Amino acid sequence: MALVLTGFHNGGKSPLNEKNSTAWHHIRLLSFSDLRYMLHSNGFSIEAVRCNRTKPISWLYAPLIPLCAMITALVFRKEEKDAAQRARNREILRQMFAPAVLFGETLIVRAVRIM
Fold first, then answer.
1. pTM score of the predicted model
2. Which domain holds residue 45?
3. Does residue 12 lie within any of the structural domains?
4. Does a structural domain hold residue 24?
């Protein structure tokens, strides 16, 4: 919601202090789909996705997840004609609807370079 109202992501609700940077500053907060795309398009594969903690507010929208997953799967299937990409889309769907991605505050992703 903060993104819509202020233009900044929930993890950083205002601009970073350029005169007093800390190790906690994020230059760019990414969505999971952006992170996955960058990793996979640069030769990495995601092995595991975890989170630091579950956000309690997440349980409010949990009942909507099955409907959202079904609609997303239908859109993925309808829009993609390439069989190889359809297989990747099934993997992407599984990862997007993993509990850590849906309910986590900060994602922790383990990726390995594919040889």
1. 0.69
2. 30-113
3. no
4. no
